[in-house]
Design a protein that fits this description.
The chain is mainly alpha-helical and 185 residues long. It contains three helices and two strands. A hairpin with a 2-residue loop joins β1 and β2.
């Protein structure tokens, strides 16, 4: 088996020397070619075949598209147009409704502003009246307190005077009782 393997390796090396050397010339159809010329020729042939295949594919796609274009039927857009007109009509109604709402809101805001201003005026007037009444009450209360103080002072003076008079009378009576010789007996 090792001999068969060595024999095959030797054959391959000989074939490589014969066909892969730069001096090798291969004759095909009466023409002589070197391996480099064969590679260039194979490259040219494969490029030409690839170009032809690409051209065939483009032509096939072109013909298919041409057929589709010839058979094309425009779609019926009447339903779309109807829907579009309904949408436009609804949009117009919505716009009118929105405008009405906006105007109503403006009127409501103006009315609220007027009411608020009236309430503010009323509150300010009530505040002024309350402040005035409070000042009057405070003034009257001070006057009343002053009169009460005066009355209390007068009452105290009167009471003090009466107490003094009673004390003098009592002192006088006590003195008379002490001075009376018959009172000790």
């Amino acid at each position: 088996m090792a001999e068969d393997l060595n024999k095959k390796v030797d054959e391959l090396e000989a074939a490589a020397k014969k066909y892969a050397s730069k001096d090798t010339v291969i004759s095909i159809g009466g023409y002589e070619f070197t391996p480099a010329k064969l590679m260039v020729a194979a490259t040219l042939v494969s490029s030409m075949l690839g170009g032809l295949y690409g051209t065939f594919e483009v032509y096939k796609d072109y013909m298919g598209m041409k057929k589709k274009i010839a058979e094309y039927v425009t779609p019926d857009l009447s339903e779309f147009d109807k829907r579009l007109s309904v949408i436009e009509e609804n949009s117009s109604k919505t716009s009118d409704y929105t405008r009405d709402i906006k105007n109503d809101l403006k009127q409501d805001l103006r009315r609220n502003e007027t009411v608020t201003e009236q309430i503010e005026r009323s509150v300010k007037q009530s505040q002024r009246e309350t402040d005035s009444d409070l000042k009057t009450i405070q003034k009257d209360l001070r006057a009343s307190l002053d009169r009460t103080r005066d009355d209390m002072d007068k009452l105290k003076r009167d009471t003090d005077a009466k107490v003094d008079r009673i004390n003098r009378e009592v002192d006088s009576k006590i003195q008379k009782a002490i001075d009376n010789p018959l009172a000790n007996k």
